[in-house]
Amino acid sequence: MKIGITCHTSAGGSGIMATELGIALAGRGHEVHFVTLETPFRLTEFHANIVAHTVDPVTYPVFHNPPMSLALASKISEVAEEYGIELWHAHYAVPNAVCAIIAREMMAEERRFKLVTTLHGTDITLVGSDPSFFPITKFAIQRSDAATAVSKWLNAETQRVFGVEKPIHTIYNFLDDSKFPPNATERCTLADDNEKIIMHISNFRPVKRVTDVVRAFKKISESVNAILVMVGDGPERMSAVGVARQLGVDHKIKYLGMNERIEAILPCADLVFQPSEHESFGLVPLEAMFCQVPVLGTKSGGVTEVVEHGETGYLTEVGDIDAMAKYAIRLLTDDEHAAQMGRKGRARATRLFSKEAIVNEYEALYKSLLG
Ligand code: GMT
Fold first, then answer.
1. Pocket test for ligand 1, best of 7, 153, 281, 290 (most atoms within 8 A of CB)
2. What domain range is 291 assigned to?
3. pTM > 0.85
4. Burial class (CB in 10 A: 0-12, 13-18, 19+), 73
């Protein structure tokens, strides 16, 4: 098949998933064309069968800002015409699916591609439900040939908020488990041997509640000799720094900034801590499970479909700092319990979220549309 993909390119889950899917499809012999504003975050190596096209911004004094979405739509139609793309997969409704719809309209009817749109979460929960974006997000879903959601929760939420008439397919996110070797027990140099490592990984947006990480860490560190490793960067980083200073735990926190090779850092953790306000899926919890690291998260959206409470980690109510600290202390003071949860996490991840099975589901959906 000749497949086009559009996605966001910054360090976010939707772009990571789109990139992983493109790489997997190319590995199966499909010809894959990415059309994006920049080269996607994790598309760093050479892959046969992948071409990465980027959009040139058009600036002109009459424009307030360069009309990037129109440039993206133009580029999609150009690439689709030139390479005879049969199927376009837009990740995130706005603007990616909308741009693909415009591009499809620009093409001669007999050459138009089929369009699959994957809803990732914030396109529905934050962006899509903002009143000004509601109609265009609904339009993107309705006019796609098929829409998928990354969890049952997001699927139901989309139906509830948008009341769309077409069925939405739930296709879970996946990871390439060969990137996450089991039993990677190598202890990194981030902490002393007698210190536990609690890790948080995110883009530090408000929805990630990074100050809850610090508040709970303060309580945990009263009982356990631990450090907090914060991976990523974003708008809430300074709030985390400020709260840590107020609570007197700043000297026990390491900020590592952005890192593309999360699989090299994650196995160092004794616990991965993601207290999000809501999460349509939760790619970091899944990465942790592949690395056999127990997860501490919240009962927010699709995370409950990824992490099994009491088996592969613990889930609390959003903002319940006491419960978070209690579960963390339980895990960090009982190595056998933590190791068992880690093993169960990996087993669950490979059973439900493996690359092979999920890419098969996407391929089957593409084939059903192309007849
Ligand atoms: O979480 C973010 O801020 C990034 C966002 C994105 O769109 O890149 O992530 C969303 O998509 C991921 C991949 O499907 C999911 O694993 C995340 O749970 C989801 N984020 C939220 O729902 C907040």
1. 281
2. 178-352
3. yes
4. buried
